[in-house]
Records
---
Amino acid sequence: MAMVDPTSRARRGVLAGACGIALLAAWPAFASGQARLQVWKSPTCGCCGDWIAHMRQAGFTVEVHDTGNAAARARLGLPARYGSCHTALIDGYVVEGHVPADDVARLLRERPKALGLAVPGMPIGSPGMDGPEYGGRKDPYDTLLVELDGGHRVFAAHR
């Protein structure tokens, strides 16, 4: 009969507990089935970097392509009228502009038949456009669900 080293068992318990804590910390990403968020942006855009930080803070894994976003937007089939300063792709959905992380998480939970989400332009107060340089200003804006036919409807209103 093999003897069990109690210190080894204790170490395994600590390791298992640490892994469990790490898994719980990342649970929002696992629960919503989030894949890697790929972002195309200008290498010099500060607000894009702030939006990426917002998404990472919300638990998203982000891969950044500093090549500009116009070609990515066109390749992904998003009409130019929904354009902003960065374009992203996650689990088959396009995410254009300063879309809040909660809206992206909801999109991934609900999985509508759509092209994706867009916050056209760069509304002040949206994630990435909410730094101290804006003095707390928050303009109202909508996150649009862009439908497969190029139309849209309001997905979330931010007031």
---
Amino acid sequence: MLLYVATSNPGKLRDFSTAAANATIADRITILPLPGLSEIPAPAEDQPTFEGNAILKARFYSRHAPGQIVLADDSGLEVDCLNGEPGVRSARYADDIGFPDTFSSTPDERNNAALLRAMDGIPPNCRHARYRCVLAAARDGEILHTASGTVEGMILLAPQGEGGFGYDPLFFLPELNKAMSEIDLETKLTLSHRGRALASLLITLSTPN
């Protein structure tokens, strides 16, 4: 089974490829980035939910690969004490709250700094959060299936670790006593919200109708 993914993010592609390689289904899965993605104008991700944006993107991008199954995800961080923010705006959180763009050198660092500012004064036991991913599969503009995956954690008071991407330096896993950015790749992939979403989706896609 060949699946194209509508992303050029190396972290996402790694998560999806590893999850596909470890999938306990009969079909052999090949994950590839959607050809020519950089030349396709991106659709407006204007839906209020992860599922809405994943479906929107899967429908849109599948029309650029006729006959093929195209996957699109929407994923991000939900913080309970911020009423689920950053949520669907996780990649643009600093912009949304007007956080200074001169503060940090990368978008990830700026978003992390913005999150810490928003949570200033919130005690450690009230900083529960989760990574959530919703994944949609489409062919020729028609949705085939959707699936979701989550991983639960806490938001730290300061970044830890050098690995990962996004909010990983702030996302603490109590059961491992480490930030997501501090765990090895193999362990991370067993916990990945994207990996869990893809594993669920692959079971559905490989099951005969």
---
Amino acid sequence: MGNGPRPFTEEQIAELERELRHVGLMVRQKGRQILANYPITPPQFEALQWLKENGDMTIGELSAKMHLAFSTTTDLVDRMEAGGLVERVRDQSDRRVVRIHLQEKGRAVIRDVINSRRTYLASKLSHFSPEQVEDLLSALKLLNREMKIDRE
């Protein structure tokens, strides 16, 4: 940040942090309520989302993405495989490597849960004007971009 005057106050930053934290908490709580209708846990759902976004991954890669111990991720994958959500497959170019592949049942769970979450969010945004939704979306995209810079 430059040495010029800040366009915001410390109180605004504190309030923004609190509101973002509360919104995030409420979205997670609603997500857990939705997941209660499925035979999976929140960490399993998170793993399914990583696999959907990144394609087949090794347990080590998935462990790193989820910030979990290798053994914890192995147990998670074992349970998801038993539930028909994923399968272990040998890498075509290196048969020693085993990748976790998202099955159609896993894709269906993601689709259903995400659709339910989006329906919930749409209901909460129904009191917003189209301009307010667009302003919120633009501001969140900008904040997300700025935060991603720190991770690179």
---
Amino acid sequence: MSSLLAAAVLGYLLGSIPFGLLLTRLAGLGDIRQIGSGNIGATNVLRTGSKSAAALTLLLDLAKGWAAVIVAKSWGADAALVAAVGVIVGHMYPIWLGFRGGKGAATALGVLLALAWPVALAAALVWLVTALIFRYSSLAALAAAVGSAVLAPLLVDGPTAAVIAGIALLIILRHHANIRRLIAGSESRISLTKG
């Protein structure tokens, strides 16, 4: 039981590191929470005009998801699954930011890479194709989340598939405002013309 608690704490603390906020401040780009959607993730960092800051945010958010699972794997398969959930919850609801964090897509990809890399590759492909066709990051994240939940039972064991489905559900719930904007036709499109 202690290893599961340690995995949960490790995952949450790693997940709650707000790389988007830290990087934009270090780069002199201001408080990312006051820009665009106010989200701390890579898509909103891109709205500052800095592709490099956005790319680094994406990479570090992905890395923390991967690292949480990889470290916890040394404590057992159950610990890895607990850490997977913990790191997503930490990213979405970081204690340091009043529990107002990111949407979890990049961190979830890191988790998938550590838990089931074929699912991660499929999810990344779904994200890329959806983003290129429709130019909505949020729609791409939602499609990737659903795709990973559907594919996981075919490639991994039951508990791992259940955790992947749970993470997908969390991502969908965190995108509730985006879903409303997509339906209303007012969602912001991805722009790669700045910076």
